From TrEMBL:
Protein name: Transcription termination/antitermination protein NusA
Keyword annotations: Cytoplasm, RNA-binding, Transcription, Transcription antitermination, Transcription regulation, Transcription termination
Residue stretches making up the Transcription factor NusA N-terminal domain: 6-128
Subunit organization: Monomer. Binds directly to the core enzyme of the DNA-dependent RNA polymerase and to nascent RNA.
Residue ranges of domain Transcription factor NusA first KH in the record: 203-280
Domain NusA-like second KH: 286-346
Highest taxon in the source lineage: Bacteria
Record organism: Imperialibacter roseus
Subcellular localization(s) per the UniProt record: Cytoplasm
Function recorded in the entry: Participates in both transcription termination and antitermination.
Length: 413
């Protein structure tokens, strides 16, 4: 094992990994200085000269010549006149001796240890390079190839063979991947676990949807259209608020594209996620009205101090506002940063109607919540439906529905 082999092997690796020359020299010097300290206890009076291109290594030890009887003779940077003249016969006291130390002088065991140290430093450097590379890619879309499908996660590899992780909870529920398939996702986070970089991807992040818009809509990529906010239920529904600072550009039309050409490719990537693109506005009431699309709002009462807004809709609009499983109203609430309460307008009964919350002492809270999920928030809105309709549209048992109807009827009797 000689210096040429050590240095050339490391230099080859450094070039493959695009390690800059100063870093490469620093690592090599650190390894050799460690060897020197183990042999001579200190490396203060040593110079190391490395020519990485040729694999050359020179280690020079510098010591001051002192009298054979000097008290300083045992200092690490001193040498007796007798010892110095063995190197050069005409040396005198006070002069400096420069002595080259060969790698083989350290012994086979020390050189082997240096090799192991260098290998470890190479591994650590490779991990650090990978960590820094992906740290800079957080929030960006990358393409990975599936090489193993596990129960709790999918393992992918990038173009350089580095392992990437797509956890189950970062996958769209409808995602089904097979080995060898290419997957697009964003770099969600990068962390060091036991000294190894762990690269976590995501397809459920709102940032993933933003990046898809950037890739499919040139105006978004160029900054002509700004994405103000994104909220989504991955694989089900999303709402994207967009704004253009150029009056000549219709932000919604540009994002959707001719006959939906732009939005369709995004929808396909997200397993047919239903995406509502709306025009952002600082007019709160108009923004709320757009957020609840496709429902048409009759009127509303905004209470910003309470973080709530009450919207009133015609009976046929309530289900549209709430959406499947309450998705539309949940996303709209998150989009406008207000809790939206939906109320049904009942002609001729406005004065007489009573909120379901008024019956909380007689009807359990979870039952009231079930009724609200399908847009029933007043007594008359419940009584307008038959028992069979209520059973079909909610998860309530027949006996529970019957009890609710009895309690509400008593109120108006």
């Amino acid at each position: 094992m000689d210096s040429v082999f050590l240095i050339e092997s490391f230099a080859d690796f450094a070039k493959r990994k695009n390690i800059d020359r100063p870093t490469m020299i620093r690592i090599l010097e650190d390894v050799f200085r460690t060897m020197i300290r183990k042999r001579f206890e200190t490396d203060e009076n040593f110079d190391i000269i490395i020519n990485a291109d040729k694999g050359d290594l020179e280690i020079w030890r510098f010591r001051e010549i002192v009298d054979d009887n000097s008290e300083d003779i045992w200092d690490h940077d001193k040498v007796s006149l007798t010892e110095a003249r063995k190197i050069e016969p005409d040396f005198e006291i006070g002069e400096e001796v420069a002595e080259e130390v060969k790698l083989e002088d350290f012994g086979r065991r020390a050189v082997q240890m240096a090799r192991q140290t260098l290998i470890q430093k190479i591994k650590d450097l490779e991990k650090d390079i990978l960590f820094q590379k992906y740290k800079e890619l957080v929030g960006e879309i990358i393409l990975g190839e599936v090489y193993q499908v596990l129960g709790r996660e999918i393992l992918l590899v990038d173009a350089e063979g580095n392992e990437l992780i797509l956890p189950k909870f970062e996958q769209i529920p409808k995602d089904r991947f097979k080995k060898g398939e290419n997957v697009r996702a964003i770099v969600h986070r990068v962390e060091m676990v036991n000294g190894n970089p762990k690269i976590i991807l995501s397809r459920t992040s709102t940032v993933f949807l933003e990046r898809l818009f950037e890739s499919e809509v040139p105006e978004v990529y160029d900054g002509l259209i700004t994405i103000k906010k994104v909220v989504r239920e991955p694989g089900e529904r999303a709402k994207v608020a967009v704004e253009s600072y150029d009056d000549r550009i219709d932000p919604v039309g540009a994002c959707v594209g001719m006959k939906g050409s732009r939005i369709h490719s995004i929808v396909r990537e997200l397993e047919n996620e239903n995406i509502d693109v709306i025009n952002y506005t600082e007019n709160t009431e108009l923004y709320i009205s757009r957020a609840l699309s496709p429902a048409k709002i009759s009127s509303m009462k905004v209470e910003p101090e309470n973080g709530r807004v009450s919207v009133y809709l015609k009976p046929d609009q309530v289900s549209l506002a709430i959406g499947k499983g309450g998705q539309n109203i949940k996303l709209a609430s998150r989009l406008v940063d207000l809790e939206i309460d939906v109320f049904r307008e009942l002609e001729g009964h406005e004065v007489e109607d009573v909120s379901l919350d008024e019956f909380s002492d007689e009807i359990e809270g979870w039952v009231i919540d079930e009724l609200k999920k399908i847009g029933l928030d007043t007594a008359r809105s419940v009584l307008n439906l038959t028992k069979e309709e209520l059973i079909r549209r909610t998860d309530l048992e027949e006996e529970t529905v019957q009890d609710v109807l009895s309690i509400l009827r008593q109120e108006f009797e």
